[in-house]
Design a protein that fits this description.
Elements lengths: L10 E5 L4 H16 L4 E8 L5 E2 L4 H6 L8 H7 L7 E7 L2 H6 L5 E7 L12 H5 L7 E4 L14 E4 L7 E3 L1
Parallel strand pairs: 1-2, 1-5, 2-4, 5-6
Antiparallel strand pairs: 3-4, 6-7, 7-8
């Protein structure tokens, strides 16, 4: 089932994991929000822990519990320069595509990092799979040191909605 954006698509969603490409996707999303005065940044992290957190925990609490990856998301987002008044961080348990897609109903675009490695038996990455379930474009960002597509030197590719598997290198 495809999520449908509202008429005032103002959310810029970014799927965030502990990878350099996720940080670069987040930096692009922060810049996008900064350029759009009406946009809100929604940073989504799918956790393997059975926990749901909004806008937290603080750096002190994260440190006190051993700083697991999910606990440092909010602090990382703020350290990279996101405006706290226009940012929502969400940590939820589940499979990344499903968790991210739940937060895309009013998104104008979704940013995700591109993983170098593919899991055995999984033909499509998160960006491609998101492109089949969300109604907005999905922009997949590679880390600076990742190899590029043979046809492009761009670190970004875009999966357009309603065009399963369609890729546009920009």
């Amino acid at each position: 089932m495809r999520s449908v954006p509202s008429e005032t698509s103002t959310d810029i969603v970014v799927g965030f994991a502990d990878r350099r490409s996720s940080s670069e996707a987040l930096e692009r999303a922060i810049a996008h929000v900064a350029d759009n005065g009406n946009a809100r940044l929604v940073v989504v992290h799918a956790s393997s822990s059975p926990i749901t957190v909004r806008n937290g925990p603080t750096a002190q609490i994260a440190q006190a519990i051993g700083a697991p990856g999910w606990a440092t998301v909010h602090t990382t987002v703020l350290e990279l320069g996101a405006d706290p008044a226009r940012t929502l961080t969400v940590i939820e348990p589940g499979e990344p595509v499903s968790v991210i897609a739940r937060h895309c109903t009013s998104a104008s675009v979704v940013y995700v990092g591109r993983s170098r490695r593919r899991r055995l038996g999984r033909a499509k990455g998160i960006g491609q799979r998101l492109g089949t379930v969300v109604a907005c474009p999905v922009v997949q960002v590679a880390a600076d040191d990742e190899p590029r597509s043979p046809s492009s030197s761009s670190p970004v590719n875009r999966f357009l909605p309603a065009q399963t598997g369609a890729t546009s290198w920009i």
